[in-house]
Amino acid sequence: MSVEFILETQGLTKEFKGFVAVNAVDLKVQRGHIHALIGPNGAGKTTFFNLLTKFLTPTRGTILYNGNNITYEKPAQTARSGIVRSFQISAVFPHMTVLENVRAALQRNLGTSFHFWKAESTLYPLHERAHALLDAVDLAQFADELTVNLPYGRKRALELATTLALEPELMLLDEPTQGMGHEDVDRVTQLIKKVSAGRTILMVEHNMNVVSSIADRITVLQRGAIIADGPYAEVSKNPQVIEAYMGTADAALQGAH
After folding, report:
1. CB within 8 Å of 2: residues ≥ 6 apart
2. Alpha carbon 6 to chain centroid, angstroms
3. Beta partners for 171?
4. One-character DSSP codes across the chain
5. Domain segments of the chain: what residues?
6. Do the beta carbons of residue 161 and residue 137 sit within 8 Å?
7. pLDDT (tens digit, 9 = 90+) per residue, 145-163?
8. CA Rg, the chain, in Å?
9. Alpha-carbon span 73 to 143, nearest angstrom
10. Which of 22, 95, 193, 241 is the most buried (most CB within 10 A)?
11. Sheet holding 200-204, edge to edge
12. Torsion angle, CA of 223/82/88/48, rounded to 10 degrees?
């Protein structure tokens, strides 16, 4: 596929009873990039993700994926075409083992998710792929552990593996490091970098250390509109961005130190 931009939105707008949550957003996500979407709370980031994954219908505007107009596709069509969203809400089965969770995701990709009565032997081909995915996210040693017993950061790594099982071309990561301690943040950041090989990632993220260390490009939203777009070094010096963040608790905390 030669289209330079895997995802493009043109004038994408979402209004709720007169309130403009996403305001004429023109976003271009370059193929193979890790692209971060940042902005203060209420900036419209989650609404924007909901538009991309078809959980909301835009008021106006267009969404192009691989050059095709997918604006009015159904959520399942969009997922099948290779856009998969992960994180924010834990999407794993707590009382299955780590390996079983990945295998269930692989079955879903094969369209056999409802064949739970199938002979165990027919699932063996999935075993190898499931173990490879666990290796990719450093969970091999937890394969037989019940998911409910995993530490929080490892659960997020498992979500990454179940997302990868669906073989996404474009991964949408929603607050991947939210609620994590430093060690987990570092581990998950490195995993995102690792699994980005050969695919494109668009992520909503609050942690600026994460964004500055792995994002190729950053788009800043404020009140539903883009106020800056570019590499971290450029965006972080933008006066409008600095001002947008001055009102947040993070900036107030930094000022207090």
Report:
1. none
2. 15
3. 84, 201
4. ---SEEEEEEEEEEEETTEEEEEEEEEEEETT-EEEEE-STTSSHHHHHHHHTTSS--SEEEEEETTEE-TT--HHHHHHTTEEEE-SS--S-TTSBHHHHHHHHHHHHHT-TT-TTS-GGGGHHHHHHHHHHHHHTT-GGGTTSBGGGS-HHHHHHHHHHHHHHT--SEEEEESTTTT--HHHHHHHHHHHHHHTTTSEEEEE---HHHHHHH-SEEEEEETTEEEEEE-HHHHTT-HHHHHHHHTSHHHHHHHH-
5. 1-82+168-257, 91-167
6. yes
7. 999 999 999 999 999 999 9
8. 19
9. 36
10. 22
11. 83-86, 170-174, 200-204, 34-38, 217-222, 225-230
12. 10
pTM score above 0.85: yes
Classified by CATH at the fold level, domain 1-82+168-257 comes out as: Rossmann fold (3.40.50)
With a CB cutoff of 8 Å and minimum separation 6, the contacts of 26 are: 8, 9, 10, 11, 12, 226
**Cα–Cα nearest to 191, from 169, 213, 224, 208:** 213
Pairing of strands 83-86, 170-174: parallel
User: How far is the C-alpha of 114 from the C-alpha of 19, rounded, in Å?
Assistant: 41
Q: Please, which residues bridge with residue 219 across strands?
A: 37, 229
Residue type, position 17, single letter: K
Rounded distance between C-alpha atoms, residue 171 and residue 160, angstroms: 10
List, for residues 36-67, the tens digit of each pLDDT value: 999 988 899 999 999 999 999 999 999 999 99
Q: At what angle do helices 98-110 and 152-165 cross, to 10 degrees?
A: 20
The sign of the CA dihedral 141, 146, 148, 149 is negative
